[in-house]
Amino acid sequence: MRRGRGMPNRRGAVRVEPRFGAPLPVAAEADMPPGKMQPPARVALAAATVLLMTALGVAAVDYLLRDGAFRIVDLRLEMEARHTTRAEVLKAAWPAVAGNYFAVDLNAVAAAVAALPMVRAVEVRRRWPDSLHLRVAEHRPLARWGGGGIVNADGTLVKFAAGAAPAALPLLSAPQHALTEAAQRLRRWRRRLQGHGLRLEQLTVTPRLSWSAAVRAGGEGEGGAVQLLFGRGQLERRLARFVDGYENGLRAVFHHVRRVDLRYPDGFAVQWTAGGGPESELRGAAPANN
Fold it and tell me: What domains are there in the chain, each with its CATH number?
């Protein structure tokens, strides 16, 4: 027998079956929580925030870059200089300090100082709130170069205007291909001559590699520079011969000597200043070709 709707089943339970075709209930639209914006409002607020922050950023940058704000008022120098003064560095640097602390071109300041003849390298840094720190390194020159510039101890040549190198340096005149050897000999000969009270003022090498030098006695009133002719060979031997002759007779009369020709195989010739001695004094045979 077929049970009807709502009839108990065998176990005494009642099963209710839904009626097919009846419409399902639709949930009501939930209300927007209080204080929460619709998407268009959020977009508008974000855009307004971006515009405000941009305007504030532009205003801040404009203020920071104004010349009247955060002006550079001090240049601090760190340098161990023998040939460049602090006054020269400051005179070169200040005209390049354009703009304030944030806008100043550090490379321009460094380039202005590096243009000084004896300056080898420059480093410029900002120091909060109103100063720049400059670290300046100089060349360590061995001699002035005859063509205008300086020669370092390793024979490297730094060219600049003639007359800008320190006058106290010895003068080296040599072809560029002979600079390294000339620098080595100048450094070595200068030390050796200093040990005998002589100052090496000039070393000259001709294109044919003929060598000569100018030396002066260390004391004041000792006369002018004396020219030494070495020629093209046996340079160290000829220098030793001159030093020996200086210590064994020439020292006492060196202020009357104009030139010493060392191009002889076993001696040298001395030319005196006017009225200082005989016109010439020969020791040994005639001078060799070199």
Answer: 74-138 (3.10.20.310), 141-282 (3.40.50.11690)
